[in-house]
Design goal:
Helix content: 40-55%
Largest sheet: 7 strands, mixed
Oligomer: single chain
Number of strands: 9
Strand content: 15-25%
CATH topology of the largest domain: Butyryl-CoA Dehydrogenase, subunit A, domain 3
Radius of gyration: 21 Å
Number of helices: 11
């Protein structure tokens, strides 16, 4: 399956590849070393047109297909998995607005989506509601003109500097009500928002992650995404695109690992010859190449279904499951090929090994992906 469909797409992919490797790789290495934010590169990322990839051109975006989007996320992730997940989450929220927001909300929010200061975050998870999003407890009590929102959200990517938060809440007439799961878009500058940074992450250390505290935050009625009670449906639908983004991030990590181990196998001499001449090393490289290309095909299959307006829940879960687990296997092999050199911070595969790990966890764990795949097959049959 072709990963681009036009000459213009290919030119853009090449430009993004050159930009990422020339402008993001070294900052990403520094951010990993001192756990500093990569947000300082966002103005340059925005100048490349990458902040509003999925926004239709009628709102000033590029209107990129999901196939092109996935390829670009892979190219970004090759150089900086942290920037890749920043863009993936931002784009996922943008895609939800395109699909579910009112015309008024689209006109109000989407034209600015391409700016570096319009970063979006997706806030579903809570301390007691991770994989089970339906257990969310954050309350949105109805008041004149909107809602008062109180609760905390965990593991929020882009949470420190987010301009917009897509938040899953329980809309209630009274605080004692059970409430209906509802999606609200909250302005990051609203009174009552507090953020606690999460430090000490194993990987993607240049990506900001926070606990988001919402303390009686007022949200106008006009910022409700869809009907009360439809919030979970909208958020779960967003995860199809989100899982493609994380699968593409994983593919970028895997591609970088494959290139690193292949280059090292050509140069590292043992027993009078490059280690790439030994079958054990060749097997690791060959297996990695097959798994990377398989990941890409699964990603492009799921993306093509979304581009065609078809349901892609199972295919997106398959792509995310396979690509993330393949990235972890490939990163393991990359460290193994490097031997002792791959075990120290100065070697890039050591960082990539850590960066890969999160891809089997966020946007739904591998176990959740298997559940989704099996559920879709049992309920719908095999296509």
């Amino acid at each position: 399956m072709n990963r681009s469909t036009t000459d213009n797409d290919r030119m853009f992919i090449d430009a993004v590849r050159n930009f990422a490797r020339g402008n993001l790789l070294d900052p990403d290495r520094r951010a990993d070393a001192d756990e500093s934010s990569m947000l300082n590169v966002l103005p340059a990322v925005a100048d490349m047109g990458l902040m509003h990839l999925v926004v239709p051109d009628e709102f000033g975006g590029l209107g990129a297909s999901m196939r092109l989007y996935a390829t670009l996320i892979e190219e970004i992730s090759y150089a900086s998995p942290s920037v890749a997940v920043t863009l993936s989450v931002h784009s996922m929220v943008g895609k939800v607005l395109v699909r579910y927001a009112s015309d008024e909300m689209k006109r109000r929010l989407l034209p600015g989506w391409g700016r570096a200061d319009s970063l979006a975050a997706f806030a579903i998870s809570e301390a007691d509601a991770g994989s089970d999003a339906s257990s969310a407890k954050t309350a949105a009590v109805k008041v004149a003109g909107g809602y008062r929102v109180t609760g905390s959200k965990m593991w929020i990517t882009n949470g420190r500097c987010g301009k917009w938060y897509l938040v899953l809440v329980r809309a209630k007439d009274r605080p004692s009500d059970e409430g209906k799961l509802t999606a609200l878009v909250i302005d990051g500058q609203s009174n009552g928002i507090e953020r606690d940074d999460i430090h000490g992450k194993m990987g993607i250390r240049g990506s900001e992650t926070v606990v988001l505290h919402l303390n009686d935050v007022f949200v106008p009625e006009s910022n409700r995404l869809c009907a009360e009670g439809d919030g979970l449906k909208a958020c779960l639908a967003a995860l199809d695109e989100g899982r493609i983004g994380i699968a593409a991030q994983a593919a970028g990590i895997a591609a970088a690992c494959l290139d690193e181990m292949t280059s090292y196998a050509r140069q590292r001499m043992q027993f009078g010859k490059p280690i790439g001449h030994f079958q054990a090393v060749q097997n690791m490289i060959a297996d990695s190449a097959v798994e990377l290309e398989s990941s890409r095909l699964l990603i492009q299959r799921a993306a093509a279904l979304i581009d065609a307006g078809q349901k892609a829940t199972r295919q997106a879960a398959m792509a995310k499951l396979y690509a993330s687990e393949a990235a972890n296997r490939i990163a393991y092999r990359a460290v193994q090929v490097h031997g002792g050199s791959g075990y120290i911070h100065e070697c890039r595969v050591e960082q990539l090994y850590r960066d890969a790990r999160i891809t089997t966890i966020y946007e739904g764990t591998s176990e959740i992906q298997r559940h989704v795949i099996a559920r879709e097959l049992i309920h719908s049959g095999v296509e």
